[in-house]
Amino acid sequence: MSLKNIKAPISSHIKEFEKKFQSSMKSGTPLLNIITKYILKRKGKQIRPMFVFFAADICGKINEKTYRAASLIELLHTATLIHDDVVDDSNERRGFFSLNALWKNKISVLVGDYLLSKGLLLALDNDDFDMLKIVSDSVREMSEGELLQIEKSRSLDISEETYFEIIKKKTASLIRACYACGAKSTEADSSTIQKMKNIGINTGIAFQIKDDLLDFNNSKSSGKPKGMDIKEKKMTLPIIHLLNNSSYLKKRKIINLIKNHNNDPEKVYDIINMVNESNGIDYSKEKMIYYKNKAIEELLSFPESPSRNSLEKLIDFTINRDN
């Protein structure tokens, strides 16, 4: 099913959100307005704001606070993407030049800081301290997850347990915040918010495993060059499964290839072949489906509604997407 059909129950809210989000980025500085226009032109699928609105509609009634929650999440998410591109020295995102490719690192970092501050002020100016706490916890966890991944990429010493700790912090914590802020905006009770957080964490884990699998995807539409995670020495689940099922000597060989030959296309291709031969892809898909099913199982405990049905389809979409 297409995203257009999935978002049908909240489509009018998404259109209104886009106007409010655009307004939330405005500045009195001309350069900032030029850059934010560029950001808005290359916006993604807006899956995170959709999570916010679906969660709110399932838990209560969408209201002004819901719009602020979606804007807060999207401002934070955009800021972290800009900072990620600087950290990763990436010149491209979603098929467009990244900000640091066009305006260099200094301006990119400042724009990321500006968007983060706009999100914080949006919450503070409206006394949304509850949502600010949820989002601040997410920012802290995302930073910890990124630093843990950088630390582990130096030694390439990462267990499956550590991998899940990293992706819970790096990816799932923000998706958890989407669900929690959506529910919180409707004044849902603590047990309902906790259920939404659980759905968010499991959705986020499945989402990140899918992202890892796209690194081994032959499709040109993935928007991600094949083997990029290997080139960046990121230990993803397919690689971890390969290492866990290799002899001591083979393990040393694989680690040596990732550590010292990660920019050699032939060596990267060899690693991808070894992953396929070890059933690393199938194993990762099984884990992804497991967490997706956990998210949907908890979602189905809520009363049936157009938004609940669409959110179930959206969770499915996140693990069946091509990019």
Explain how this protein is built:
This protein has a single domain, classed as Farnesyl Diphosphate Synthase (Orthogonal Bundle). By secondary structure, the protein is mainly alpha-helical. It has helices spanning 3-6, 11-24, 30-41, 47-59, 64-87, 99-125, 129-155, 160-184, 190-214, 228-231, 237-244, 248-260, 265-277, 280-299, 306-320; strands at residues 92-93, 96-97. The model is unreliable at 219-224 (pLDDT under 50). 76% of the residues lie in helices and 1% in strands.
Q: Tally the helices: what do you get? A: 15
Low-pLDDT windows of residues = 219-224
Alpha-carbon distance between the two ends: 15 Å
If you consult CATH, what is the topology? Farnesyl Diphosphate Synthase
Strand percentage, roughly? under 5%
Topology, number of strands:
2
Rg calculated over all Cα atoms: 20 Å
Order of helices and strands: HHHHHEEHHHHHHHHHH
Query: In which order are the strands of the major sheet placed?
Result: 1-2
Structural class: mainly alpha
Question: What characteristic shape results from the CA principal axes?
Answer: globular
The CATH superfamily turns out to be: Farnesyl Diphosphate Synthase
Please write the CATH class name: Mainly Alpha
Average predicted local confidence, pLDDT = 88
Count of the domains = 1
Biggest sheet statistics = 2 strands, antiparallel
From the coordinates shown, what is the CATH architecture? Answer: Orthogonal Bundle
Assembly context of the chains: single chain
The portion of residues assigned to helices is over 70%
